[in-house]
Prior knowledge:
Layout: H1 2-24, H2 54-57, H3 61-73, H4 75-96, E1 101-111, H5 118-126, E2 143-156, H6 161-227, H7 233-267, H8 294-300, H9 302-323, E3 328-339, E4 351-360, H10 367-434, H11 440-474
Antiparallel strand pairs: 1-2, 2-3, 3-4
Helix pairs in contact: 3-6, 4-6, 6-7, 6-9, 6-11, 7-11, 9-10, 10-11
Amino acid sequence: xxxFKKFVTLLSITFLLLATGCKLAQPVVQHAAVTAPNAFQxxxxxxxxxxxxxxxxxxxxxxxxxxxxxxxxxLDLKIAAQRIEMARSGVQFAQGALFPNVGAEISGGGRKFGxxxxxxxxxxxxxxxxxxxxxxxxxxxxxxxxxxxxxxSWEIDIWGKLKARKKAAYxxxxxTDKARHAIITGLIAQVASEYYRLVALDNELAxxxxxxxxxxxxxxxxxxxxxxxxxxxxxVRQFLAQLINTRGLEVETQQKIIAVENGLNMLLGRFPxxxxxxxxxxxTFPQHISAxxxxxxxxxxxxxxxxxxxxxxxxxxxxxxxxxFLPSLNITALLGFNSFKxxxxxxxxxxxxxxxxxxxxxxxxxxxxxxxxxxAEAESQAALYNYNKTILTGFQEVSTSxxxxxxxxxxxxxxxxxxxxxxxxxxxxxxxxxxxxxxxxEVILAQRNVLDAELTLTEVTRNQFLALIELYRALGGGWEQxx
Length: 483
């Protein structure tokens, strides 16, 4: 009767654990992410520039060579590759937990039992047995213990806890690979941006030097005017001061060129050296630019995919933390030689083996498991918010870049007209000054205005290329290139 009651009690506990396990093994409910709109604002074309290979978008051969060098030598990209290897090791570690752990063991030890203990009395009394030969006599008073063999332990993944950890590690591996893709996209965009900044500075330097020549001619002219009594020393000083100021701009621009070249070389993973480039006036700009369908952008943009995979990884960890409350089935086994005499250790009679299985579940102190579950839930929720934020950020960047391209194109046309008008004004002011119909201040102002307008036109042209590059990066272009 007592045995039957024990059996019923054990059966009830097992049924309760299994019922609880089925409930805890249910998938964790996860909140939905934000829904993407069907199209970008003012964007209807379905073919986006992000589908282009970067070589097709950046046709400048000098720029293509720089991007190739950066993709081979950039240190951030090399670091990202090592992070992938670390994540791959995490997957192998999680996968190894699904299989038995078998280890070879060589151990030795001993113990002296108290004379007034069950082991002490039992060992003493055993030696008087007539059934024992000399080899089986127990050493006294110190009892050695030697073992050579294999020990194994294995947690059977009955609830899928270990598989959830493996899935989390695998998603992290994929997320790390997407992080590398994001670095590739950002690196291509950064190299291209610095390149166009460099060629724009070259153009600015050419404009400044052209204006220096014009201003030097104006200084000589005003000196001749002074000698003829048609101008004074103040006019000479004003023209000379303008020339000195422009020469200062020349030196400042040269320093900017050096700084941009050094920064670009840093991206290429090499020491400072001269960057070969093509003039800004020879650069081509795409006639038609489209962002494409937002859903396609979500599939292409690496940081969105990375955030999604990290969200899935935290979800799997949350599931694993929940399943940690369930009983775990562990199997242990050993096979080897065991003896209390070293000279008999490898005797056939010393072969020992054993196996045991146990089902254990936390019952009383489960604070650590609850804390781990709360942490996993918070991380999963934070990952969801980060995923939503990444989507919103992507749409904001694309929308801003599209508008920037549109407005820059308009500004470029207006600035080109302004430069043309001001260049005509410089010629007219010089003729009027020579005939006495304009003052030297008007000539100085005209020269200064045309210099500022030409530099602004160069800046707007550069910003147009930068806006194109930023749109390409925001759409996740460039990373498809095989490296």
